[in-house]
Amino acid sequence: MKSDEQARSLFGISLSGRPKWHQFFICSGGFFFGYLVNGICEEYVYNRLQFSYGWYFTFIQGFVYLFLLYVQGFTPKQMVNPWKTYVKLSAVLMGSHGLTKGSLAFLNYPAQLMFKSTKVLPVMIMGAFIPGLRRKYPPHEYLSAVLLVVGLILFTLADAKTSPNFSVIGVVMVSGALVMDSFLGNFQEAIFTINPETTQTEMLFCSTVVGLPFLIPPMLVTGELFKAWSSCSQHPYVYGVLVFEAMATFIGQVSVLSLIALFGAATTAMVTTARKAVTLLLSYLIFTKPLTEQHGTGLLLIAMGITLKLLPDNKPSKRASTSSASANIAKPAASREERTLLENIAKDEEKRPLV
After folding, report:
1. Of 2-6, 258-262, 276-280, which range is least confident?
2. What is the DSSP letter of 13?
């Protein structure tokens, strides 16, 4: 976990001064709650009503975010980062969203799921190349990520009725989305690291304000804006569902940003990746669906990955090593200066006439 120089809180709950595991479970709890409600609402809107207007729904969601941030008292005067920082962030976010949606035209759901489940690995690799971050991970954390990814793929595809269907264009598009996702999380972590005064609400506010205009061109080009407006006008209650979903997702988004600020992009990616398995497991327990051997193998690998991630790193921290090395280097320099000073004093004494 990074240094807690900035006092952080999550919806009035102070995170500063708490043990790491308290902070982790509070943030993870907010994330899981927000996106569990989000999943239920999406199931209703997309599958029951057959409304698949992702760009338009995201557009509505953005305005709900801005209203909730206004209610919380956030204003642009509280910003500590320049707008250009968030222009880059929003461009990457919209690019990832667009490529993910576009890849569905060339990949079936199991194939896309396999690629998206590997998100944590490119996030860890990309962390070494982000200026201001240059994060490196020990080998056991890479092994932990691989176990989590393989376990998640086995678990989520256990009930797939079709085999993964790959297309070169689809693979290129979903791979591009993965690269952008990995850059996004690390870039957010770099902003929190370089400027610890950055708050979660600032990042969400600025990303939303800058990102909303990016949604208009794809809605106009695809004609989704007019189709969605017409469909939702015939079913006005859909807007109530969308607002409720956006409020829940808002809790999840702020919780995710808190995880990134406190624990880094890779740990956050592991939490968000594991959400799919947890959601599916809950559905199996609630609706008493039978679990197969593939489910069990997947859960075992996920548990092993999480356990490996929680193992303490016995190596001394980089900061401590650097400090001790600097101290060791500084000591001889100070001794030479002292010797030079003593020699100069001795010479002055020799030149001084005897009284």
Report:
1. 2-6
2. E
Q: Distance (Å, rounded) from C-alpha 354 to C-alpha 252? A: 83
H/E element holding 306? helix 293-310
Cβ neighbours around 31 below 10 Å, total: 23
Hunting for tokens 């859909």 — which residue is that?
238
Other beta carbons within 10 angstroms of residue 25's beta carbon come to 13
pLDDT class for 323, splitting at 50, 70, 90?
A: very low
State how far the Cα of 39 lies from the Cα of 41, in Å rounded to an integer. 5
For residue 3, give every residue at least 6 positions away whose Cβ sits within 8 Å of its Cβ, in sequence order, or none.
196
Give yes or no for a contact between 170 and 101, defined as CB atoms under 8 angstroms apart.
no
pLDDT exceeding 70 applies to what percent of the chain?
Answer: 72
- Whether the CB-CB separation of 213 and 91 falls below 8 Å is answered with no
pLDDT in tens, 160-183: 655 566 677 878 888 888 888 888
The answer to whether 11 and 254 are in contact (CB under 8 A) is: yes
Q: How far apart are CA 10 and CA 25, in angstroms?
A: 12
pLDDT of residue 311: 66
Concatenating the DSSP letter of every residue in 64-79 gives: HHHHHHHHTT--GGG-
Quote the CA–CA distance of 79 and 76 in Å, as a whole number.
5
Per-residue pLDDT, 66: 92
